[in-house]
User: What shape does this take?
Amino acid sequence: MGTDNDFASYTAEYETVQHVRHTVTVPLGADTYDILIGPGILTDLAKDLTSTLAAPRYMIITDSNVADYLGVDLIRLLRQSGARVELLSFTAGEESKNMDTIVELARKMVDLGADRQTAILALGGGVVGDMAGFLASIYMRGIPLVQIPTTLLAQVDSSVGGKTGVDLPEGKNLLGTFYQPVRVYADIGVLATLPRAEIRNGLAEVVKYGMIQGRELFDFLEEKWRDILNLEPDVTGRIVFNSCSIKAGVVSADEREGDLRRILNFGHTVGHAVEAAAHYRIPHGEAVSMGMVVVSRISAAKGLMPQKDLERLCGLLDRLQLPCRIPTGLRAEGLMNLLRHDKKARSGRPHFVLSKGIGQILITDDVSRKELAAAIEASRG
Assistant: This one.
């Protein structure tokens, strides 16, 4: 992974199937599964799902934002196909991503008679996917899971790869499991219902793939940024397809974040600290955007990253209406203290994914507090 040739092969495959639906396979031996991508995927979900995962019962887990429109439609479609299905929802937002919510959902499932053959359908964005995935991994020691991501961020990143989690007051995703879904359904048509801010939130993860995977993807984002913001269908399908393909390659080589998979955390170490310091009032994508700038400033200061590549990153984020600056109210000292609790830290020393230039990544713990503080201060404003 991480070469321009990889991206070129994904692009060539995409261009042969424009205007139709696409499949990306995540090859994990017995846990191999497909990601179905395209407009209108949810329309045929019931037929595909009941043939792929003929569970005697399905539990849709979603949040209060999604329950009243997509949740109702999905129940109708599944029941028309003869499936037994119930819908459980929780209050939308990162504040609900905790063990109290998990226990509440689990007890409702018990009350409804959910057993080991019941399948969970995670319908929503990243919070829903993380929560429902975690619940599926621990309910009766594990029941089948299907991811149905409804935000751009979830479609290009969090629904793929099997990472689940809930937050603690000390940090994000400190409790979690690796638990792969049976199937992922990414209907790009539902993205048109999202606020523009949600689209921008997901684009930060797409930029991340550009930074870790190769210059061609980054060049494409620079060239097509207007079409991307306008959700032009071919462009939207292409960035979802390529993002999932890149992540599938990384995950298949390193399912449980031993080494290679850690490149997917570019921008996330600092980004998670920003989220926690802001009490999750800053969306994940915006925090990752800030985090990418901070680690890129560290990289440039160390002489690893060309200054022109740092400027290109900031320029692209700006065009995509993503922040390059950390709010002045979030001080460097507080962010650095939070970094000590990052789940990827070892002996209280956080590891950083740095950049050697667009498409080239370095994982290291060789970042001093002075270097980190300087990069954060340079990024505040």
User: Anything to note?
Assistant: The chain has a mean pLDDT of 90. The two ends are 35 Å apart (CA to CA). Residues 209 and 247 are 8 Å apart (CA to CA).
